[in-house]
Amino acid sequence: MTTLQIEIIEPKAEKLLEDLAAMNLISIQSNKQERLENLLNKLRLHADDISMEEITKEVETVRAERYANRKK
Q1: Measured on CA atoms in the order 19, 33, 39, 47, is the torsion positive or negative?
Q2: Full residue range of the structural domain in which residue 58 is found
Q3: pLDDT tens digits for 1-55?
Q4: Does residue 16 belong to any structural domain of this protein?
Q5: Which of 31, 48, 28, 49 is CA-nearest to residue 39?
Q6: What does the alpha-carbon distance between residue 38 and residue 44 come to, in Å, rounded to a whole number?
Q7: What is the domain count for the chain?
Q8: pTM for the whole thing?
Q9: Could you tell me if residue 60 is inside a domain?
């Protein structure tokens, strides 16, 4: 298997690559930086959906679980 890094200049080429991936002829993987950016963008989209109180409650719950697991 050969691994190549390709810079797409023409947007139509991306569609061709996606078609090849759909036919299981190639595999497309994002680089780590791109995956992180995608994750952050998803989180930012939903940032207004959660209040500060909900964040605080979740953090306290996780901390309590970790503390309980350390005591065992």
Answers
A1: negative
A2: 11-71
A3: 888 888 899 999 999 999 999 999 999 887 777 878 888 888 888 777 778 888 8
A4: yes
A5: 31
A6: 10
A7: 1
A8: 0.43
A9: yes
